[in-house]
Write a structure and sequence with these properties.
The chain has 933 residues and is mainly alpha-helical. Among the domains are: 139 residues, no CATH class; 170 residues, no CATH class; 207 residues, Gamma-tubulin complex, C-terminal domain (Four Helix Bundle (Hemerythrin (Met), subunit A)). The chain is 61% helix and 3% strand. The protein is built from 38 helices and 8 strands. The strands form 4 sheets. Strands 1-4 form a two-stranded parallel sheet. Strands 2-3 form a two-stranded antiparallel sheet. α14 runs antiparallel to α15. This is Spindle pole body component. It comes from Blumeria graminis f. sp. tritici. It holds the Pfam family GCP5-Mod21_N. GO terms for molecular function: gamma-tubulin binding; microtubule minus-end binding.
Length: 933
């Protein structure tokens, strides 16, 4: 049956249903028009004025084919639904019918199945076994006959009678014309075509119009053109050994679907967790290009599409970190832009308004500007997921690196893209930083900020040092992006400054004077393309971010610094420490030390009476305006047990190390002057006290000839005064070096550096550097321990020299008293001779022999009144030596120690080579010149 006949039949039925609207066509015709046969009734529709218009419309209309994939997907879902509802008989029946359709493979099978699906309504709950059996037993209605009258009405050419005349195919002679007869019987006219005429009262089905053909070749070409038939359609995977040729338009559709994340036949997508892999189906090909070229082009599409699909999978996952959420939202917006652009491409190909050339290469080039940024973001996501410590700020760090690399490569499009995204994410990351440097507060539960609070109930002096800390990575690096490392310290100090100002009740001043001229942090402002297009992004960002941090830091630090100097008295406290520990005021220092030295010599109890020492210190230093005398305190370490040892310790300069001065500072001052630095102050104070002690012992009496010294030989007095002057020169040179070359210049520089310091951390660093420099230059560092020990030995020599002189005087007095007694005794006994020992051996510092025979009941022990000091290992052997020889031994030891100190200082200066070592060399030169001069 021709297509026109099929359309005519369908239009007649449509018009009949519209005119009378019968529920049953055949029954309705008889009941509506009694006495009129169906043929006459049909004539009313054939002459209807709308029929020709409807036919022309249907002939000129092309309808889109039904999507077979959607139909088979719905059928698979219906099969599964039947089995879920327990209607296995329905699922089996559906499966059998589909197998039959697949075996027949009609051209319009998808349309038929779609039509059936549209008619179905709640099949699992309404159909029964009886319905299926009844549907199988229903007899097929007879096909309506086709009549020539209907054809003549449909086609005007068939109305001419000449069309129905027989045609002679013989030559044009008329001899056989009479003999020609029609071989067709008169009864075989147009009315005898019964096999193709339609019935009057039967329902027309779509299967009745199926075209039967034996042209297997043409049928196979139609099947091959529908490339989806060879794919998995229903419950089976047919094996295909040959390539299926598709058009470039079909391939373009598959590529666009792949970019959009939809299922395709040309590509097979496998999703696993946060990754998506794409494989190319190797059963398709294009006619106009080689297979290798086609697959090479498809591989380039899969490389781009896999990055896009990975992003689609990642954005579907929920994220908790705010920074990652913003990053994810930005990617979603970019994917939406891509989907919109792909939809525009599809619309241009499906409904073109002008001539369009379908080209896979053209689609690839057209989508590259949108895909390149997404591919770059996919690389960031892949690296982020593979990080062992995947902190959220790692995405920000990777964006920073991508921005720098894009600029170096000259890729301006990617540079702008990455730069804008970087600053959008940065605004989220700096929220806790802003809260810290503006309010001094840490957000609870913030795991991305590099500042954390160790304890909230810590003591106030440790507020700056111990309450907050900077978080570190397991490898020791800063818990923050690399590009924030230069500004991390300033950020940390700004927040701590605000916390300290809150405790000092000065935060209101900060808020009232805070300006609103905060620099902007966005790509257009920081990386102004017309102006800074040649400047590196890293430098531009460092300058902009540093300016932003300084705008917050400078104001808070200046207010805290001003508060420490003016309200808390930092300058006054430092001056008080200098006067107390460094004895900056010479007269007051001499008054304070003389009291201690006198009590040491006279063995008064006030030496170990800390209350007497505190009272003396407060009265002495109280005259200085910067010293708060009520804060001053002194403590003593316990002395060695035993009378002789105690006496020995008191005479040694080492006894002064048990004296400790305390001067408590207020907690804001202790932030700058840490308690650990007070130990260094105490060490310098002890060293100065020891030098003063040796100098005091040598110069406590004026240079005069003792009344009992007239019997001493001149060769004993001259070495004594020479050696004494050398010791005084050494102590004065050393004290001058400590005070004038070390402490005073360092203190002045420290005061100037404190005024120039930007924040409290710099002030702490200035003071720590100052006290360390004083320790190093004062010969108290660990490198000069041996030199310092020898310096103390030289100082001990001064005390030892005076002890020897006191012993010499005591021996002389004892000998004189003994001689006088013996002279008186011998005057009574002229026969007794005086021992030469007592007459001539006055130069030996030793105890007289046979002292018991003098008639005195008490043993005279001059050495017990002034005990030896621990100076050298062979000191006991010197007691029995002559006085002059003892002087020569001490002088020899002095030269040896001073030479060692001088050469050691010069060698250490050459080895270290720093500014501190320069003073060591100066002191070494001074000692060497004085020793040889």
């Amino acid at each position: 049956m021709t297509q026109l006949a099929i359309l005519g039949t369908l239009v007649d039925e449509l018009l009949e249903s519209i005119i009378d609207a019968p529920t049953n066509l055949s029954k309705g015709v008889k009941e509506a028009v009694p006495g009129r046969d169906s043929h006459n009734y049909r004539g009313t529709t054939k002459s209807h004025p709308r029929k020709e218009q409807i036919l022309r419309t249907l002939r000129n209309r092309e309808w889109a084919r039904t999507n077979p994939f959607d139909v088979y997907s719905r059928l698979d879902g219906l099969d599964e639904k039947f089995r879920v509802y327990g209607q296995d008989f329905l699922a089996n029946a559906l499966y059998d019918q589909r197998r039959k359709i697949e075996e027949i493979s009609p051209q319009w099978a998808p349309e038929i199945l779609h039509f059936i699906l549209e008619l179905s309504e709640r099949s699992p709950t309404t159909l029964t076994h009886g319905d299926i059996a009844l549907a199988r037993e229903l007899p097929s209605e007879p096909t309506p006959p086709l009549r020539w009258e209907d054809l003549r009405l449909e086609d005007p050419l068939l109305r001419d009678e000449i069309v129905w005349q027989n045609v002679s195919f013989s030559d044009e002679s008329t001899d056989g014309e009479d003999e020609f007869r029609d071989s067709v019987n008169s009864t075989e006219g147009p009315d005898k075509v019964q096999n193709y005429s339609r019935g009057d009262n039967s329902y027309i089905r779509l299967e009745d119009f199926e075209v039967k053909t034996n042209d297997q070749k043409g049928f196979q070409e139609v099947i091959d053109s529908q490339f989806w038939r060879s794919l998995n359609t229903h419950l089976m995977r047919p094996e295909v050994s040959e390539k299926k040729v598709i058009t470039e338009l079909q391939a373009a559709r598959e590529v666009l679907f792949l970019y959009s994340g939809y299922p395709t036949s040309l590509f097979q997508v496998t999703k696993y967790e946060d990754k998506a892999t794409i494989n190319i189906s190797d059963i398709y090909s294009l006619n106009h290009i080689s297979q290798d070229t086609f697959f090479s082009l498809l591989r380039s599409f899969t490389k781009q599409a896999s990055a896009v699909l990975n992003l689609r999978v990642w954005v579907a996952c929920s994220q908790k970190a705010p920074l990652i959420q913003v990053f994810q939202l930005f990617i979603q917006d970019k994917l939406l832009e891509l989907d919109t652009y792909l939809s525009q491409i599809q619309q241009r190909l499906i409904d073109p308004v002008e001539d369009v050339v379908v080209s896979l290469v053209g689609i690839k080039q057209e989508t590259i500007p949108l895909l390149r940024p997404l591919i770059s973001l996919a690389e960031i996501i892949t690296k982020f997921n593979n990080e062992p410590y995947g902190h959220s700020f790692r995405c920000l760090e990777m964006l920073y690196d991508k921005t720098c690399i894009s600029q170096i490569n000259g890729d301006n499009a990617l540079y702008i893209f990455h730069g804008n995204l970087f600053f959008k994410c940065l605004q989220i990351y700096i929220r806790p930083i802003r809260s810290w440097i503006e309010e001094g507060e840490l957000q609870n539960g913030d795991s991305d900020f590099f500042v954390s609070e160790t304890a909230s109930d810590i003591s106030l002096p440790l507020l700056w040092e111990s309450r907050f800390k900077i978080r570190k990575m397991p490898d020791g690096t800063l818990y923050a992006p690399r590009f924030l490392k230069p500004a991390a310290g300033r950020i940390f100090n700004t927040g701590k400054s605000i916390v300290v100002l809150k405790h000092l009740h000065k935060f209101d001043i900060l808020q009232s004077t805070t300006g609103h001229d905060e620099p902007k942090l966005d790509f257009d402002t920081v990386c102004n393309q017309p102006i800074f297009h040649l400047a590196p992004f890293s430098e531009l960002f460092d300058m902009a971010f540093d300016a932003w941090v300084r705008s917050k830091h400078r104001h808070a630090a200046s207010i805290l610094k001003k508060t420490l100097f003016s309200s808390c008295g930092l300058h006054t406290s430092l001056d008080a420490l200098s006067h107390i520990y460094f004895l900056a005021n010479g007269s007051i220092g001499t008054e304070f030390t003389s009291f201690i030295f006198e009590n040491l010599e006279t063995s008064k109890a006030s030496w170990i009476d800390k209350f007497a020492l505190v009272e003396h210190a407060q009265s002495t230093f109280g005259s200085i305006s910067t010293v708060s005398s009520e804060r001053l305190g002194i403590s003593l370490l316990p002395l060695t047990q035993g009378s002789e040892d105690t006496r020995k310790d008191r005479l040694s300069i080492k006894a002064l190390s048990i004296l400790t001065i305390h001067y408590p500072l207020s907690w804001p001052i202790q932030i700058v002057v840490r308690p650990t630095t007070i130990i260094s102050y105490q060490r310098i104070f002890t060293f100065l006290l020891q030098v003063r002690r040796s100098s005091y012992f040598l110069s406590r009496q004026p240079i005069r000839v003792d009344s009992l010294d007239h019997i001493s030989r001149s060769d004993e007095r001259l070495p004594y005064f020479s050696f004494r002057m050398r010791l005084l020169w050494f102590t004065q040179t050393l004290y001058h070096y400590l005070t004038c070359l070390v402490l005073e210049p360092c203190s002045q520089k420290m005061q100037a550096d404190l005024k120039m310091a930007e924040d409290v951390d710099m002030m702490i660093e200035v003071h720590s550097t100052y006290i360390k420099k004083c320790i190093d230059q004062a010969l108290l560092c660990s490198k000069l321990d041996l030199i310092h020990a020898n310096v103390l030995k030289v100082l001990e020599l001064g005390i030892k020299l005076e002890e020897m002189r006191e012993m010499k005087i005591a021996v002389n007095r004892t000998n004189i008293s003994r001689n006088v007694s013996e002279v008186d005794y011998m005057s009574l006994d002229p026969g007794h001779a005086i021992d030469d020992t007592y007459c001539h051996d006055y130069g030996t510092v030793r105890q007289p022999r046979n002292l018991e025979s003098c008639g005195s009941d008490e043993k005279i022990r001059p050495a017990s009144s002034i005990h030896d000091t621990a100076s050298s290992p062979d000191e006991s052997s010197l007691v029995d030596e002559p006085y002059a020889l003892q002087l020569r031994h001490l002088e020899k030891e002095f030269h040896h120690l001073v030479n060692f100190v001088s050469r050691g200082l010069k060698g250490a200066a050459r080895a270290v080579g720093s500014e501190d070592a320069r003073l060591w060399d100066i002191l070494g030169e001074m000692l060497e010149c004085g020793l040889t001069g």
